[in-house]
Design brief:
Blueprint lengths: L1 E5 L5 H14 L5 E3 L15 H11 L2 E6 L7 H12 L3 E6 L17 E2 L3 H14 L6 H18 L12 H20 L11 E9 L2 E9 L5 H12 L12 E5 L17 H4 L5 E6 L6 H15 L1
Parallel strand pairs: 1-2, 1-3, 3-4, 4-5, 6-9
Antiparallel strand pairs: 6-7, 8-9
């Protein structure tokens, strides 16, 4: 099965890591092509690049759209997705460094996935393998998926979208985009009994050797422990296992409160703690965290109020 990976050339290293991951989970059953591929037989050949891309799209059964701060507003990425839809390709947006809520129409109308989120990546891999009549076996791929999340986080370019100049044209465009998304949301059936509790939270990684912004999806079935495990998968290139509260900690970006609940952490639903619009920071520790640190901070807070 042929798959085209649409991306920004600024994300070619991340695109290579994505190709490597899906090559491995499919045991080499897929031909995954992207334009900036530097490996033998990959990427654009000498000649008319436009015709080459159209030919790859024509021969592909799916198009994975790699959405990052570099590519989310790329007209070319949106063009490739549109051509893929026109040729009846399965259009599959995969995100790194952006929230699914930041995806503009029409791509926001497709089911999208977070490469840094274990459950989301597993669902994505399952869907793509099913397109090729293959089965995803989590028990044999779990360790590799964890390593892949760490690699995706490490190699993805840490970029910040440049602020666009404030002018009437840009303001109108932003308003139009916002209204289009709101209308699209209103059209979707309302289900007040929905138990999925699915939304994304921002995780700002502020470790000494790794600084990123990623997003994790919160569902009803996740526990706080599951979320911490997923964050560890992202930062394991710079911390050892079983070292939460020893070498790193999670802090609420607004209240500055630390996440300290080790004894019952696997029994607490994630959505009780990681609420909508939440933003958390992964921070290094100079010394192991102690319960006295929280007590002392409380005393300092009360002293400041006097």
């Amino acid at each position: 099965m042929n798959i085209l990976l649409s991306h920004s050339t600024k994300d070619n290293v991340l695109a290579s890591a994505v190709k490597e991951f899906f090559d491995d989970v499919s045991l080499g059953s897929f031909k995954i092509w992207f334009s900036s591929d530097k490996t033998s037989g990959g990427g654009l050949a000498v000649g008319n690049w436009y015709d080459q891309i159209r030919e790859e799209l024509k021969n592909s059964k799916a198009i994975m759209v790699l959405l990052t701060p570099n590519s989310v507003d790329s007209r070319w990425v949106h063009f490739e997705s549109g051509v893929g839809e026109g040729t009846e390709c399965a259009v599959i947006p995969i995100c790194m460094g952006i929230s699914t809520q930041d995806i503009p129409l029409p791509l926001s109308s497709y089911q999208s996935y977070q490469l840094s989120d274990y459950e989301s990546l597993k669902t994505c891999a399952t869907k793509i393998l099913e397109l090729g009549n293959l089965e995803f076996r989590e028990n044999t791929m779990k360790d590799y998926m964890i390593q892949a999340i760490s690699k995706f986080t490490s190699v993805s370019a840490s970029v910040t979208k440049k602020e666009e100049p404030l002018n009437l044209s840009n303001v109108i465009q932003k308003i139009t985009t916002h209204m289009d998304k709101r209308i699209d949301e209103i059209k979707k059936p309302l289900n007040h009994e929905d138990d999925s509790v699915q939304y994304a939270i921002k995780i700002r990684i502020d470790m000494d050797n790794l600084k990123r912004i990623e997003y994790l999806e919160i569902t009803k079935d996740l526990s706080v422990s599951d979320v911490l495990d997923n964050i560890y998968f992202m930062i394991q290139s710079c911390v050892d296992s079983y070292h939460y509260l020893d070498t790193w900690i999670l802090e609420d970006d607004f209240s500055k409160k630390k996440l300290i609940m080790n004894e019952i952490i696997d029994q607490i639903p994630a959505h009780y703690v990681f609420t909508r619009a939440a933003s958390w920071v992964v921070k290094p520790l100079q010394k192991s965290y102690s319960g006295y640190d929280s007590i002392n901070q409380g005393w300092f807070d009360r002293l400041n109020d006097i």
